[in-house]
Design goal:
Blueprint: E1 5-8, E2 13-16, E3 24-29, H1 40-59, E4 62-67, H2 74-83, H3 87-104, H4 120-132, E5 136-139, E6 142-145, E7 182-187, E8 202-204, H5 206-218, E9 222-228, H6 232-246, E10 257-263, E11 266-268, E12 271-272, H7 283-286, H8 292-299, E13 308-310, H9 312-331, H10 345-352, H11 357-369, H12 374-388, H13 395-399, H14 412-427, H15 431-443, E14 446-451, E15 454-459
Parallel strand pairs: 3-4, 3-9, 9-10, 11-13
Antiparallel strand pairs: 1-2, 5-6, 6-7, 7-8, 11-12, 14-15
The structure holds zinc ion (ZN).
Zinc ion is lined by residues 30, 210, 235, 239.
Length: 460
């Protein structure tokens, strides 16, 4: 069996992965806070950890993958107050949209997708235990984690003490014993959602949610904890502090999760993606004009730890690459696919090397171009694609063929180029050229259909 090596953010080195519990791998990744549409940075996280889960399932007999939904948070409450809807209505709606958008990107549902509001008793237990052991204190309806009580605080991010206060130094709440202390529980106003607790009616802080949900569903310690690099501090640092201190294992930062995996940032056309720059790209919007599989391919073109620059060119290129691959599969249509064919070693080996997706995609491209015996080639391409979450559709459907038969001589690549030229012409408002291309293709017996996913063609 292939060794899997992973870069561990906690030890800051690449390690050979060995599951704590021999045959059962347990992984947790921080999921979305659901009050609006997911942007492609969120989508990158979902796709990266979906691929981790697929790889682990290929290597080990049992994998439990948990990724949560944060459905109680100040931003959600603000969104509910702004729209006049209930928090529950908003979170149900956006969790549903998140799941269907991610499914379109080939993201399989995690084994468990716990909601924070369903895990309140476990959070209250953890908070009680932290108070009992002198790591937390109640003050003015709040419960706070006392950071100086945990000598190893900062071990994941490596942040020095004076940088741990992030934002808090501007205005430190009067009830905090130390500016770095963070909220475990906060009071809710009568009109806000809240739960009864020994410290009054209130709601959890964000960090305690993940400590409670991961422990409830996976047990401690578990193997892999993941999330976006932006969560390393303070969110993941605080999860470690809560979970280690609640269980009296504060000398061992790995007693919560053994390996920490963080995916890198995403930029858009070379710039930081931000509301103020107006360049936030929503997965939901891109899906209206592009197949989810092309988005997934694009998100896997960079190594997960590296920054990914999202560009329209890169997206179009990803779509063209998939067109070419599906074209090859279509040519191999007649070949029988043996069942349960092993994933080609070149692809598996690349993924086992800290999920090296650029190398895995290069290996897949080489496979598609190879002149291996068609009777095995098709199965090998489909098996490699199955692991990567690609190439599982009917090639005819992907390429937009209607009832094209095996002896077809249609040149998909040339038509694809003409369609792109037509799309650009329409964008440039050069409708004369756009119509000319349509007429030219029509004379060749090719019909164009403009759909929400973009222009498609098929034999008329
Ligand atoms: Zn989390």
């Amino acid at each position: 069996m292939n060794d899997l090596s992973l870069y561990n953010s906690l030890t800051r080195r690449k390690e050979v992965f060995t599951p704590i519990d021999g045959s059962h791998v347990r992984m947790y990744a921080c999921g979305p806070t659901v009050y609006n549409y997911a942007h492609i940075g969120n989508a990158r996280m979902a796709v990266v950890f979906d691929l981790f889960a697929r790889l682990l399932r290929t290597l080990y007999p049992k994998v439990t993958y948990v990724s949560n939904i944060t459905d109680i948070e100040d931003k959600i409450i603000a969104a509910a107050e702004a729209s006049g809807e209930t928090v529950e209505t908003i979170t149900r709606r956006y969790a549903g949209i998140y799941n269907s958008d991610m499914a379109a990107l080939g993201v399989r549902e995690p084994d468990f997708q716990p909601r924070a509001t369903e895990t309140i008793p476990e959070m209250l237990n953890l908070i009680g235990s932290l108070i009992q052991q002198g790591h937390a204190y109640a003050a003015e309806g709040h419960v706070l984690f006392h950071v100086p009580s945990f000598a190893n605080y900062g071990g994941l991010s490596g942040r020095p003490r004076d940088e741990q206060i992030a934002g808090a130094r501007v205005e430190v709440a009067p009830y905090k014993r130390d500016p770095a202390d963070f909220v475990l529980w906060k009071p809710s106003a009568p009109h806000q959602p809240g739960w009864d607790s020994p410290w009054g009616r209130g709601r959890p802080g964000w960090h305690i949610e993940c400590s409670a949900m991961s422990e409830k569903l996976l047990g401690l310690p578990f193997d892999v904890h993941g999330g976006g690099a932006d969560l390393k501090f303070p969110h993941h640092e605080n999860e470690i502090a809560q979970s280690c201190c609640a269980h009296g294992t504060e000398d061992d930062l790995a007693s919560f999760a053994k390996i920490w995996v963080h995916n890198g940032f995403l930029t858009v056309e070379g710039e930081k993606m931000s509301k103020s720059l107006g360049n936030v790209i929503l997965a939901h919007d891109v899906l209206k004009r592009m197949p989810g599989e092309a988005i997934r391919y694009m998100l896997l073109t960079a190594h997960y730890r590296q920054p990914l620059d999202w560009t329209e060119d890169g997206l179009q290129q990803s779509k063209r690459t998939l067109d070419r691959m599906y074209q090859r599969l279509r040519e191999l249509k007649g070949a029988d696919v043996p069942e349960n064919l092993a994933v080609p070693e070149t692809v598996l080996e690349a993924l086992c090397d800290d999920l090296n997706t650029p190398r895995a995609l290069a290996a897949l491209n080489a496979l598609v171009r190879s002149d291996e015996d068609p009777s095995v080639l098709k199965g090998r391409i489909v098996a490699a694609g199955g692991l990567l979450g690609l190439l599982q559709q009917d090639p005819d459907a992907w390429l937009g063929y209607g009832q094209a038969d095996a002896g077809d001589t249609v040149d998909a690549e040339r038509i694809g180029k003409l369609l792109e030229e037509r799309q650009q012409a329409r964008k440039d408002r050069n409708f004369a050229r756009a119509d000319e291309i349509r007429d030219q293709l029509a004379s060749e017996g090719i019909a164009i259909e403009d759909t929400p996913q973009g222009s498609q063609w098929k034999k008329a």
